[in-house]
Design a protein that fits this description.
alpha/beta; 229 residues; two-stranded antiparallel sheet; 8-stranded mixed sheet; TIM Barrel
Length: 229
C-alpha cells in the first residue's frame, strides 16, 4: 500500500489514512492499542504513530517493538513514524541519523525558532517576522531533505497569528514538488485555509500526506469528515 499520493489523485480510500498521530510515548494521551482500536472503529485503512524524537532520544527501540507487536493484531496498516524539529536555517533535522532507514514516516516540522543556542516561541516575534522565519526554516529543510514529510506547513504562524501568506504556502508547495517531499495536510492547522490550499495544491500537484496531529484519540481520522466540507 502506498504512503503518499499526488494531491490530484486523492480519493475516498486515501482519505482513510491518518499519518500523524501521537501516543503516550510522547505528549499524546492514548496508548498504542487505544489508538489502533479507534482507527478500527473509524474504518481507517492506514495510520502512522509519529512520536517526537530528538538526536539524544533513547526510547526508540522499545517504541518500535510495541508498534510491531500491536500492529500484528489488527487489519489496519500501522506504520512506524517519528516527528522531529527543523533545528536550524541550514535545514538540519534534530533526529538520530540511523532512523532514516528504520522509519516509514519521517516528519520534519517547524516548532520553536532557533537563534544562536536558544529556541524561541513563535509569538515572541511579530506576525510578519514569524511568517518569514517559518518560511525560511521550511524551505531550508526541503532543499536539504532527510525526512519524507514536511509537517504542518505554516502551522506555527497559523496557531499564533491565524495567518500564513498564500505566496509563502505556494513557495513551500513548489519546493515540496521539486524535492519529492510530501506536503502534510494537517487537520489541526489547515482547516481554516483549506479552500485556498486546495487551489495551490491542484496547481502544483505535489505529494501529500494526510495527518490529524492527534494527541487525543477523539481527533484521529479528522480528514474523513472534514476534507470535503
Amino acid at each position: 500500500m502506498e504512503i503518499f499520493r499526488r494531491f490530484c489523485d486523492i480519493d475516498s480510500n486515501f482519505m482513510r489514512f491518518d499519518q500523524h498521530i501521537h501516543s503516550i510515548w510522547g505528549d499524546g494521551k492514548a496508548g498504542i492499542q487505544q489508538i489502533i482500536d479507534k482507527a478500527e472503529r473509524m474504518g481507517l485503512k492506514q495510520i502512522a504513530i509519529t512520536e517526537h524524537v530528538r538526536s539524544e532520544s533513547t526510547y526508540f527501540n522499545k517504541y518500535k517493538r510495541e508498534i510491531a507487536r500491536e500492529s500484528a493484531k489488527t487489519p489496519v496498516r500501522v506504520l512506524l513514524g517519528i516527528e522531529a524539529r527543523i533545528k536550524n536555517f541550514s535545514g538540519d533535522v534534530d533526529m538520530p541519523k540511523e532512523l532514516v532507514k528504520k522509519v516509514k514516516i519521517r516528519i520534519a516540522s517547524v516548532h520553536r525558532f532557533p537563534f544562536g543556542r536558544k529556541l524561541f516561541y513563535p509569538d515572541q516575534f511579530n506576525k510578519k517576522i514569524c511568517q518569514e522565519i517559518e518560511l525560511e526554516l521550511a524551505v531550508a529543510f526541503l532543499n536539504k531533505g532527510g525526512c519524507n514529510v514536511l509537517g504542518h506547513p505554516g502551522g506555527m504562524s497559523l496557531r499564533f497569528y491565524k495567518e500564513f501568506q498564500l505566496n509563502y504556502f505556494e513557495e513551500i508547495i513548489a519546493a515540496c514538488k521539486k524535492n519529492g517531499i510530501a506536503f502534510e495536510l494537517n487537520s489541526a492547522y489547515h482547516l481554516p485555509v483549506l479552500a485556498q490550499l486546495k487551489v495551490l495544491l491542484r496547481r502544483h500537484n505535489p505529494l501529500v500526506s494526510l495527518g490529524s496531529d492527534a494527541h487525543d484519540i477523539k481527533d484521529i481520522g479528522n480528514w474523513i469528515v472534514k476534507f470535503n466540507n
